[in-house]
Design brief:
Length: 238
Amino acid sequence: MGRITLDKVRKAFGDVEVIPPLDLTIEDGEFVVFVGPSGCGKSTLLRLIAGLEDVTGGQIRIDGKDETAVPPAKRGLAMVFQSYALYPHMSVRKNIAFPLRMAGLDRAEQDRRVAAAAEVLNLTDYLDRRPGQLSGGQRQRVAIGRAIVREPSAFLFDEPLSNLDAALRVGMRLEISELHKRLKTTMIYVTHDQVEAMTMADKIVVLRAGHIEQVGSPLELYRAPRNLFVAGFIGSPK
Ligand code: ADP
Ligand code: MG
């Protein structure tokens, strides 16, 4: 399960209100993209959902349960970081198993989950290598594997592909979409890239200065952008 509800969630850093009160529902299994220009609050919103930042006001519910004050490790969500967050001195196997070792899972369960994730990500033959011996795409898959083994109710991605070259980005987009089809787990994906938003999302949330300009499917936003900001951002003809 992975239905996430934000109810008047707001965030201020000191006197600066970065996210004014915001309501949003993400349905179980949805692929939701937060899109908007740099500095509009995408990462902050994702970090609030993950529990990496405390809300200044409002409530976050996951599958109906109030998780507003629950620490990140207990929310059952997994944040996917860019591949440079891997440990270079550890094997792929150890990198993927890392969150499970931290959580104190027994060795057999760790091995079972790592094998299952490696299978989904086509990394089975690479488990004994180190990140430095992998391609950029394989390294990014290891970073995703580290999230998969936690068997989260939702995956949270913050511009995971922004450090990859253009060709690799296209491939990784397809891989993440394919992963969503296979796992059917809720995914929230932050990007400032319109093409990623339009090609990957079930639902796009267009953000501007911390508030939601429009929510809709790529086709809805393309056909009926609410204003010029949305039209300009999505690249639709209004
Ligand atoms: P985005 O991810 O869309 O580029 P962010 O969520 O990173 O935007 O930032 C939104 C706004 O909040 C920016 O103005 C940024 O400077 C500010 N901000 C983010 N994190 C902090 C922080 N820890 N302290 C103060 N201001 C912050
Ligand atoms: Mg950001």
